[in-house]
Specification:
The protein is mostly helical. It is about 65% helix and about 0% strand. The protein has a domain at about 85-130. Helix 6 packs across helix 7. The mean pLDDT is about 80.
Amino acid sequence: MEVSDIGNTLAETLPGDILLEIFTYLDISSLISASQVCNTWHHIYNTETLWKNKAQAVNVEEKKYILNSRKQGLSWKDSFLSNYGDNLVRKKWRKGQLSTISKFEDIPARHMCKMTSAEWGDIFKREEMR
């Protein structure tokens, strides 16, 4: 047996519920990589249970946005990905929720992320219209 075959065998023989539990602890980048290992892992990556579990583990603020997206009919996966981390920061900037801060104490802990010049341009246009 080749060394590369050991990894493939392990990937194919772990029970789905064990893989699901492991995947719940992975960050998004690692999940995307794992989804490309084999068809089984790709299937687990796309299960609603995985994304619901991930949504249960986020902070209260992110969870609020995720649950609101669910009420609008989005899947757990789509709700999580569109309202987690940098995506939530971008959403708040676009909605103007970070443009009305009047004192330092009102600045949320997570208020910045990498954005392209096009994203900032869109935010500035929205600010001009407010």
